[in-house]
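pls design
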């Protein structure tokens, strides 16, 4: 075989191997403790894209001024990020304070590994399977949460189809009763 042809084929194989490689980059997503819901979703979606591209993502919550007195707000925010991205990533370095910022490092899940299965609640007569602190009907109650779920109209709507009166607020600010001042005598 020709040595030049051999070197050419080796070079082509090396190019193909480099083409299939992915260099993992470290991407950073910066958050603030008082972030609004839309901004949060936007930034978490960017984090999801980075994890799907097999890059590491560093989530940083930056604190300013009085926010430093409440690092638990940043910790709750990072826990919410972990919950939202647990399908595509896993925590490599848990949340920790570094000066005026709290950081968390997530890495993409391995290709063959799926999201860990959540423990299934055991069926039986142990009572209500809801976690403590949740609201809802008491154990044994099977009332639907919304009228639309039961397929019936709410009973508080008038039969004639007229708009219901706003009983919970006065018609105008002038008609609203004014609260009595502290320590003053009521008028007679």
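designed seq:
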């Amino acid at each position: 075989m020709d040595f030049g042809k051999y070197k050419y084929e080796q070079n082509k194989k090396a190019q193909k191997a480099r083409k299939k490689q992915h260099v993992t980059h470290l991407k950073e997503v910066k958050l603030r403790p008082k972030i609004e819901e839309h901004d949060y979703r936007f930034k978490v979606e960017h984090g999801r894209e980075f994890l799907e591209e097999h890059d590491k993502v560093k989530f940083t919550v930056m604190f300013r001024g009085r926010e430093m007195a409440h690092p638990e707000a940043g910790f709750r925010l990072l826990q919410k990020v972990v919950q939202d991205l647990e399908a595509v990533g896993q925590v490599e370095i848990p949340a920790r304070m570094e000066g005026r910022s709290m950081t968390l490092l997530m890495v993409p899940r391995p290709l063959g590994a799926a999201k860990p299965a959540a423990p299934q609640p055991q069926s039986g007569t142990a009572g209500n399977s809801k976690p403590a602190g949740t609201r809802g009907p008491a154990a044994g109650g099977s009332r639907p949460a919304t009228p639309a779920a039961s397929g019936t109209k709410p009973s508080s709507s008038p039969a004639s189809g007229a708009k219901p009166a706003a009983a919970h607020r006065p018609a105008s600010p002038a008609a609203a009763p004014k609260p009595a001042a502290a320590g003053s005598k009521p008028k007679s």
